[in-house]
Write a structure and sequence with these properties.
Blueprint: H1 4-23, E1 26-30, H2 34-46, E2 50-54, H3 57-64, E3 71-75, H4 83-91, E4 100-105, H5 115-118, E5 122-125, H6 129-144, E6 154-156, H7 165-183, E7 188-192, E8 195-199, H8 201-207, H9 211-214, H10 228-241, E9 250-254
Parallel strand pairs: 1-2, 1-3, 3-4, 4-5, 5-6
Antiparallel strand pairs: 7-8, 7-9
Helix pairs in contact: 2-6
């Protein structure tokens, strides 16, 4: 029979382990900066949390389709899908509706990010690696008490960064290009590895589906069974007949006449 002191120690250790398990969060990070991603993973794990990650938005969508996460950190500028669209896609996943979404960007002071519209809970202005991980740990704590979140989303680290004219101009040019593509009367779809990463309003109207149901979908699946073989054949022929286009690169297709 164990002495009473030993039994008390065992019970205390069990209580501590149970508390640690309850406090441990499942964290997902999406960032195409491999060095920062590795740094964040290491320090968040050391803080007692489970961490998994992705280097691209498309990989993130594939992984998150079959996994849960308590807190998701998303770099704003990702190839093919920016954080605003990725947040909307994640919010569409039933098992992630209550996840705490945090957008991160070194251009946080210049971003026209509408957190209420995208579904993000917080924004972190990226500074040094040390500062960024500090804000990430703070965001994980905030996720435990979402009721204290600021209206429209919490912003962290903004006082340490300053708006840059060049960044503003580049973002302005990007918005101008986006507006031009959105205003074209022909349906335009951008496809990466068979999945939709951009669609303009004209193409949305042709398909009869909203953007948030189209992004990341396998393109031929958006059409009726009658048209699906034609779309698959067209996609393959475009890639085959264009030697400059490889399978891993982006293909743009005009959709005029395909949905009649």
């Amino acid at each position: 029979m164990l002495p009473a002191f030993n039994l008390a120690m065992i019970r205390a250790e069990q209580v501590l382990r149970n508390y640690q398990i309850r406090m441990m969060k499942k964290i997902f990070i999406v960032d195409d900066n491999r060095l920062l991603l590795t740094y964040l993973e290491k320090h968040i794990r050391e803080a007692g949390h489970e961490v998994f990650s992705a280097l691209s938005a498309m990989t993130a969508v594939e992984l998150l389709a079959g996994q849960t996460a308590d807190v998701i950190f998303i770099d704003y500028f990702l190839p093919y899908l920016n954080a605003d669209r990725l947040c909307q896609i994640i919010r569409r996943m039933e098992h992630l509706k209550k996840a705490y979404l945090v957008v991160m960007s070194a251009a946080a002071s210049e971003l026209p990010l509408d957190m209420a519209r995208t579904g993000a809970n917080a924004l972190i202005a990226k500074g040094s690696f040390k500062e960024t991980v500090k804000f990430c740990i703070s965001a994980i704590k905030d996720a435990e008490s979402p009721l204290v979140s600021e209206p429209g989303g919490k912003i962290m680290g903004l006082d340490a960064v300053y708006p840059r004219q060049m960044t503003k101009e580049l973002l302005g040019q990007n918005r101008h290009l986006q507006a031009m593509l959105d205003s074209i009367s022909e349906g335009i779809v951008e496809i990466y590895r068979g999945r939709v990463v951009y669609i303009n309003p004209a193409a949305e109207k042709m398909l009869g589906k909203p953007q948030n149901q189209i992004l990341t979908a396998y393109f031929p699946d958006l059409f009726s069974p009658r048209l699906r073989p034609q779309i698959e054949s067209l996609s393959l022929s475009v890639a085959k007949d264009s030697p400059a286009i490889e399978q891993s690169q982006t293909v743009q297709l005009s959709m005029s006449g395909l949905c009649g």
